[in-house]
């Protein structure tokens, strides 16, 4: 055993981001279930792992970390010789990779997470979807995906010609949105559609749905 523990919830997109990275690297780990409805993430001992009270938190032996994108980067670097390569070596390539991760976090996730909340996660809490918000956010997501379509017409994946953390970070929210009417925004763009089909059919992506 590698001594890796992920403290999170299997339905959480941030937790899933970390789990996909671990599966890509073919690493053994333990998922410690944190009960969100019970507010376990807002209490000790979880707060000692992440004082901001958000999942997931991560341990690799004595090393502790939180923030899912920081965790995936640690996994990709620390276990570079395991499983699939998730980085793109070279200073210019790494700069493009960093740019792609920033775009995912600030342009894609900020919109897609609102669509996920309205159409998927509100149902978990017995709340009603606000269709006006959905329509507004779909316009924004469409503009992001137009840029993605242009990028993917030149490159098979978002950062380069092989799968990297940039692509990986998109998977959990896309998986949820494919089960909603927002799926049409991905389907309408041929290069985006092919990319989505590719990244969501990876074994690591399928394992988190079990």
Description:
With 210 residues, this protein is an alpha+beta fold. Helix content is 56%, strand content 8%. It has 9 helices and 4 strands, in the order βαβαββααααααα. Strands 2-1-3-4 form a 4-stranded mixed sheet, covered by helices on one side. β3 and β4 form a beta hairpin. α1 crosses α6 and α5 packs across α8. The longest helix is centred in the middle third of the chain and has 34 residues. The radius of gyration is 17 Å and the shape is globular. The model has no long low-confidence stretch (mean pLDDT 96). Its EC number is 2.5.1.18. Keywords: Cytoplasm, Detoxification, Transferase. It is found in: Cytoplasm, Cytosol. Belongs to the GST superfamily. Phi family. It catalyses: RX + glutathione = an S-substituted glutathione + a halide anion + H(+).
Can you give me a brief rundown of this structure?
With 210 residues, the protein is an alpha+beta fold. The protein is 56% helix and 8% strand.
Shape, per Cα inertia axes:
globular
Return residue spans where pLDDT drops below 50 for at least 5 consecutive residues: none
Query: Mean of the pLDDT scores?
Result: 96
Number of E strands: 4
Main β-sheet: number of strands, strand sense, barrel status? 4 strands, mixed
Helix content percent band: 55-70%
The tally of helices reads 9
Distance between the termini: 22 Å
Give the strand order of the largest sheet, numbering strands 1, 2, ... along the chain: 2-1-3-4
Give helix and strand order, one letter per element, not per position. EHEHEEHHHHHHH
Strand content: 5-15%
SSE class: alpha+beta
Radius of gyration: 17 Å
